[in-house]
UniProtKB/TrEMBL annotation:
The gene is nadK. Its EC number is 2.7.1.23. Its main location: cytoplasm. It is an enzyme of class 2 (transferase). SUPFAM superfamilies: NAD kinase/diacylglycerol kinase-like. NAD(+) binds at D61, G62, R66, N142, E143, D172, T183, A184, Y185, S186, F187, S188. Its cofactor is a divalent metal cation. Keywords: ATP-binding, Cytoplasm, Kinase, NAD, NADP, Nucleotide-binding, Transferase. GO terms for biological process: NAD+ metabolic process; NADP+ biosynthetic process. Belongs to the NAD kinase family. The active site is at D61. The keyword Endoplasmic reticulum does not apply. This is NAD kinase. Signal peptide: none annotated.
Amino acid sequence: MNVRNVPQKRIGMVVHPERKGAIEASEFVEAWCEKAGYEVLRVTKASQCQGLSLVLSLGGDGTMLRAIDLCLVYQVPVLGVNFGHLGYLTEIEPPELGKALENFFAGEYELEERMTLDIEISRQPRGTSESVHEAERFVALNELVVEKSHSGNVVKLNVSIADTHFLDYEADGLIIATPTGSTAYSFSARGPVVSPTLRAMIMTPISPHMLFDRALVLDSNEAVEIRVLQGPHATIMVDGINRHVLAPNESVKVRSSLLNALVIKLGKRDFRVILKSKFGLTEKSMGSILD
């Protein structure tokens, strides 16, 4: 493991408000920092991240997504402590927290960059002509999802890749995922698992009502535009948060962001080991296939 320069003695915390263990861990961090002479604050908005050397995510993967979203603009690295279930994004378990803080401030850590998505939603304001559109931007670590707003209907989506029309989809929805997000919703929709440090976008249809039902792995420089065709509206989800409802002729464009998420690695967790552990992929469990 590389030894880095000793960081500034200011850290932040993003704490899951409903998990007792996470709240107790935040109190432990506050006491640890007070004893060590470090400044610590609870982060609730992005502007608080300016000047921080580290942000601790105390919760599950959802808390980790929130922490990274807050830290992204100021490029503050995030260390995830797992108080959730799956823990794909988190790095350590709660008993390792004290030692992890010591290692970080000793400069004994790796910094891993994760690709994020730049998402631009183009909508038509109410009461305006079809030629008038307003844009809103978001950044995602896991995925963008364009899906049906109501059960019983499919959405019809016109998809262009690199400014060239690719296909019209009739499906329950469409996912554009990062490699980090390939083990999230995209995986549930039969998308491929992709190494999280790769730069690529995974386009996965959700229950497509058409012959072509496969996921596509795209170059990170290939922008994807999804336009809602005539028919039901579509809901826009960014990292699991409902952002908008798109009407016909409104669109969303997604490309790789210029900003990478910075994740602290302490050499304890390997992506492939985590994958095997979470899905029980041992030689014994695979025996019936291998025999």
